[in-house]
């Protein structure tokens, strides 16, 4: 019915306009002068924005159009504008409007097409980039003067309308390129780039822990897609650096972090194309600083992986890590290790040259090595200080000084692991495995080793999987003053601290074993809180002969002081203890647990007593 | 005589009030303490840092005591100290240098920052020994009601309930 009424109205208008010339026209001394209109694409069943012709002449008193307008469109005879709602499709067609007044007339044309909305496809494309700030050539401090534009790779891009309704989404490719083929979009839209890497196999997001854990998003302006079928919108994330300080929003930071994760994903997928990564939130904020306190206030202590999320520093003039790619990759390496392999690291403060607990030494050395593997860059740097101009760096390939090398040194471990990976052969290094063998070892033998994770478990597993390379592997290890490793317990170590002898004792039912605590070796290490140093924990291989209930007792040989022996028993691929004794200080501590037949590992630490004191360890079946 | 005594008494009370106002005892609401050996850390200098800072009222000096310990027996320990916020007064950028010897491995720094604003502020500290990696620490200082300078959030919520931190991009449309 509506269709017919429109037709009748339009027809009447056409006829009426053509014949109208009766009105008085005393105000115009010039004829109308109409400009042609640019082509117009209209959508079926959608009310149109009036098509208006620019009139540079006298007032219009009547108007006509030829041929008849598409059904649903009407002509306003007072100014020749076209309005209404088209109700049928119409191929591009030329229409002529003729305006008249008492002095004369003029005509103008417009090409009009009417289409069904979803048949209108436009391409919206572009490249997403961010500011990447490199380290100075000497490896110390950030070099803002040489900031480079880098592609935002693998990130989620979406277009939203003025109400922030998502209309479409895609991801950028390895060049930061995105493309939408959009249909039925007539409203203004904006492009948003989410700090999010998403596929069916992974979901990594960079969020603001000081702003309600909100996801960082950079967006362009709300603008029309235009009349062309292709529109390009390139978006860039600026570092915000103003020459001597950050003077505007640090938009690039989340995307710099995201790009390190992108590299790490690609490296792991080079070893296992189908691997599925557990989701991970990465929290960065310009307020994240090296202080203890509330995470929502930015007091994250340091960049770290806490077992469920990554936290990255961002405090200007103190310590920012968004451009310290090695630090980010290191922390992501801890996530990778915990999700796919196993880490027995006990954490805590550690410095270059420390004689570390073997679990911590391997965890930190692994973190640095895998950081360089992910990035294919042996340089690791950590900028800090005023204007981010200070800091330090190390090169895993060219590091000349080997301070206290050994199986307890994170430095030794990172150099060994990177030499095994990289294709550059240097002194003692003839192996270039790449990442796949390392990944396979980590998710297999290393994850399930009955001993605590250390350089011993890693190298023993590697040699078992590559027996023909055993000598070459020994040669790499020898560069760090480590004798050939032939078992997971580090049997036969000689370059150890006093009292850490042997590295593991072996316990089964019967007479038990005696261990000697090691705190007093170094007065600096003797203070509480330094239990991550070599010898602070004593390790015991526990052989349970048959399933049953057992009591494990650790008791001082003698009765001096007010010691507090604690211990933890583990089995298999879990780093959570199956039994532990953490009772208040006493000369002995014990625990009873139901144990399966097999091999367990135990870590014993004695608080409040720092001298080389002997303790007896017994396993008794109840 | 009685009127005189009343006036003397009144003046005495006023004088005491003024005296109390001027020399009122410092109120310390608590002491924040930290120890880098008990914190997660990136690989850094072998310097161990302990600190304590008093939670005080506005315009009242907070006593901040910092102890740096190293196992090294020689070298120079450099310590940079500066306020994170401009509103933290009484502390300016300063670089301390300490000579390390086998008998001198522990050093202290005492500061007395104050602020006319309430909230939680920080003193940045960077310690390094020649040839070693620096260690960075932010020491919190609490003044009055610490909630006064809590971070302001600016969260955009979409219709779907997504929480976004929106940042403007530099955009080129063509």
CATH superfamily of chain B: Immunoglobulins
Radius of gyration of chain B: 24 Å
Could you give the distance between the termini of chain A? Answer: 94 Å
CA-to-CA gap between the ends of chain B? 95 Å
Structural class of chain A: alpha+beta
Report the top-level CATH class of chain B.
Answer: Mainly Beta
Number of E-state strands of chain A: 31
State mean pLDDT of chain B (0 to 100 scale): 88
| Structural class by secondary-structure content of chain B | mainly beta
- The shape of chain B, in one word, is flat
Low-confidence stretches of chain A are: 1-27, 520-529
Topology:
The complex is a heterodimer of chains A (622) and B (174).
Chain A (H helix, E strand, L loop, with lengths): L1 H18 L20 E4 L18 E5 L6 E3 L6 E3 L5 E11 L4 E11 L5 E12 L15 E4 L3 E7 L4 E6 L5 E7 L5 E10 L4 E6 L5 E6 L10 E8 L14 H20 L8 E5 L19 E2 L3 E4 L1 E2 L3 E2 L4 H16 L17 H18 L3 E6 L5 E6 L14 H12 L13 H9 L1 H4 L6 H11 L4 H9 L25 E4 L5 E4 L20 E8 L3 E9 L7 E7 L8 E3 L6 E8 L2 E10 L6 E8 L1
Parallel strand pairs in A: 1-6, 7-15, 13-16, 16-18, 23-25
Antiparallel strand pairs in A: 2-5, 3-4, 5-6, 7-8, 7-11, 9-10, 9-12, 12-13, 12-14, 13-14, 17-18, 19-20, 21-22, 24-31, 25-30, 26-29, 26-31, 27-28, 27-30
Chain B lengths: L1 H22 L4 E8 L12 E9 L7 E6 L5 E9 L10 E7 L5 E6 L7 E11 L5 E9 L12 E2 L5 E6 L1 E4 L1
Antiparallel strand pairs in B: 1-2, 2-3, 3-6, 4-5, 4-7, 7-8, 9-10
Commentary on this structure:
The complex is a heterodimer of chains A (622) and B (174). With 622 residues, chain A is α+β, with helices and mostly antiparallel strands. Chain A has helices at 2-19, 252-271, 325-340, 358-375, 410-421, 435-443, 445-448, 455-465, 470-478, and strands spanning 40-43, 62-66, 73-75, 82-84, 90-100, 105-115, 121-132, 148-151, 155-161, 166-171, 177-183, 189-198, 203-208, 214-219, 230-237, 280-284, 304-305, 309-312, 314-315, 319-320, 379-384, 390-395, 504-507, 513-516, 537-544, 548-556, 564-570, 579-581, 588-595, 598-607, 614-621. In chain A, strands 9, 10, 12, 13, 14, 16, 17 and 18 form an 8-stranded mixed beta sheet that branches. A 5-stranded mixed beta sheet of chain A has the order 23-25-30-27-28, with no helix packed on it. In chain A, a hairpin with a 3-residue loop joins strand 19 (314-315) and strand 20 (319-320). In chain A, helix 2 (252-271) crosses helix 6 and helix 6 (435-443) crosses helix 8. The model of chain A is unreliable at 1-27 and 520-529 (pLDDT under 50). Chain B has a single domain (29-150), classed as Immunoglobulin-like (Sandwich), CATH 2.60.40.10. Chain B has 1 helix and 11 strands; from the N terminus they run αβββββββββββ. Chain B has one helix spanning 2-23; strands at residues 28-35, 48-56, 64-69, 75-83, 94-100, 106-111, 119-129, 135-143, 156-157, 163-168, 170-173. A 4-stranded antiparallel beta sheet of chain B has the order 1-2-3-6, with no helix packed on it. In chain B, strands 5-4-7-8 form a 4-stranded antiparallel beta sheet, with no helix packed on it. The chains are: A alpha+beta (622), B mainly beta (174). At the A-B interface, strand 14, strand 15 and strand 22 of A face strand 7, strand 8, strand 10 and strand 11 of B.
């Amino acid at each position: 019915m509506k269709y017919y009424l429109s037709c009748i109205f339009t027809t009447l208008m056409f006829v009426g306009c053509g014949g109208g010339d009766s009105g008085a026209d005393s105000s115009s001394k010039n004829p109308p002068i109409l400009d042609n209109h640019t082509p117009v694409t209209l959508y079926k069943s959608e009310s149109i924005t009036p098509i208006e012709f620019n009139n540079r002449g006298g007032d219009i008193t009547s108007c006509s159009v030829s041929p008849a307008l598409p059904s649903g469109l009407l002509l306003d005879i007072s100014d020749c504008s076209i309005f209404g709602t088209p109700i049928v499709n119409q191929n591009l067609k030329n229409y002529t409007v003729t305006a008249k007044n008492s002095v004369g007339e003029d005509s103008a044309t417009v090409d009009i097409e009417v289409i069904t909305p979803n048949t209108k496809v436009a391409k919206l494309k572009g490249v997403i980039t961010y500011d990447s700030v490199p380290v100075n050539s000497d490896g110390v401090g950030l070099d803002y003067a040489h900031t480079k534009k880098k592609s935002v790779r693998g990130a989620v891009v979406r277009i939203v309308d003025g109400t922030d309704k998502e209309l479409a989404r895609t991801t950028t490719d390895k060049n930061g390129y995105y493309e939408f083929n959009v249909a039925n979009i007539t409203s203004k839209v904006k492009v948003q780039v989410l700090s999010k890497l998403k596929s069916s196999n992974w979901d990594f997001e960079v969020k603001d822990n000081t702003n309600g854990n909100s996801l960082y998003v950079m967006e362009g302006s709300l603008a029309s897609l235009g009349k062309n079928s292709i529109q390009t919108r390139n978006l860039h994330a600026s570092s915000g650096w103003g020459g001597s300080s950050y003077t505007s929003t640090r938009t690039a930071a989340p995307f710099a972090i995201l790009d390190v994760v992108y590299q790490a994903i690609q490296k792991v997928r080079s070893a296992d194309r189908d691997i599925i990564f557990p989701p991970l939130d990465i929290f960065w904020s310009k307020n994240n600083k090296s202080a203890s306190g509330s995470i929502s206030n930015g007091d994250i202590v340091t960049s770290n992986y806490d077992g469920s999320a990554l936290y990255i520093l961002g405090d200007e003039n103190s310590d920012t890590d968004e451009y310290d790619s090695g630090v980010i990759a290191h922390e992501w390496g801890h996530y990778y290790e915990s999700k796919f392999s196993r880490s027995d690291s006990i954490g805590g403060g550690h410095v270059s040259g420390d004689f570390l607990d073997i679990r911590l030494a391997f965890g930190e050395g692994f973190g640095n090595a895998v950081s360089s593997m992910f990035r294919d860059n042996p340089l690791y740097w950590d900028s800090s200080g005023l204007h981010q101009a200070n800091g330090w760096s190390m090169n895993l390939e060219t590091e000349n000084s080997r301070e206290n090398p050994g199986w307890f040194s994170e430095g030794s471990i990172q150099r060994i692991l990177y030499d095994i990976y990289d294709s550059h052969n240097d002194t003692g290094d003839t192996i270039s495995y790449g990442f796949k063998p390392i990944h396979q070892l980590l998710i297999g033998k290393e994850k399930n080793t009955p001993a605590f994770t250390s350089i011993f478990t890693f190298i023993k597993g590697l040699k078992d999987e590559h027996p023909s390379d055993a000598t070459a592997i020994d040669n790499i290890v020898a560069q760090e003053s480590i004798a050939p490793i032939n078992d997971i317990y580090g049997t036969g170590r000689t370059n150890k601290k006093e009292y850490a002898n042997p590295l593991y004792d072996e316990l089964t039912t019967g007479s038990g074993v005696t261990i000697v605590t090691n705190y007093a070796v170094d007065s600096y290490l003797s203070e509480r809180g330094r239990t991550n140093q070599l010898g602070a924990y004593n390790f015991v291989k526990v052989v349970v002969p048959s399933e049953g209930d057992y009591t494990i007792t650790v008791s001082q040989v003698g009765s001096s002081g007010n010691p507090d022996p604690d211990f933890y028993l583990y089995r298999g691929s879990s780093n959570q203890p199956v039994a532990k004794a953490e009772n208040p200080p006493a000369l002995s501590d014990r625990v009873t647990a139901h144990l399966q037949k097999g091999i367990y590992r135990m870590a014993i630490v004695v608080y409040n007593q720092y001298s080389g004191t002997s303790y007896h360890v017994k396993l008794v079946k109840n | 005589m009685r009127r005189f005594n009343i006036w003397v008494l009144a003046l005495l009370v006023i004088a005491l009030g003024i005296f109390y106002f001027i020399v009122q005892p410092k109120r310390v609401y608590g002491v924040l303490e930290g120890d880098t050996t008990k914190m997660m850390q990136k690989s850094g200098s072998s310097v161990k840092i302990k600190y304590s800072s008093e939670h005080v009222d506005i315009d009242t000096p907070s006593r901040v005591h910092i102890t740096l310990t190293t196992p090294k027996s020689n070298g120079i320990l450099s310590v940079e100290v500066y306020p994170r916020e401009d509103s933290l007064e009484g502390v300016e950028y300063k670089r301390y240098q300490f000579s390390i010897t086998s008998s001198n491995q522990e050093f202290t720094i005492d500061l007395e920052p104050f602020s006319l604003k309430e909230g939680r502020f920080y003193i940045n500290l960077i310690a390094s020994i020649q040839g070693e990696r620096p260690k960075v620490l932010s020491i919190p200082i609490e003044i009055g009601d610490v909630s006064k300078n809590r971070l302001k959030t600016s969260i955009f919520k979409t219709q779907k309930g997504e929480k976004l931190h929106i940042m403007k991009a530099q955009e080129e449309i063509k």
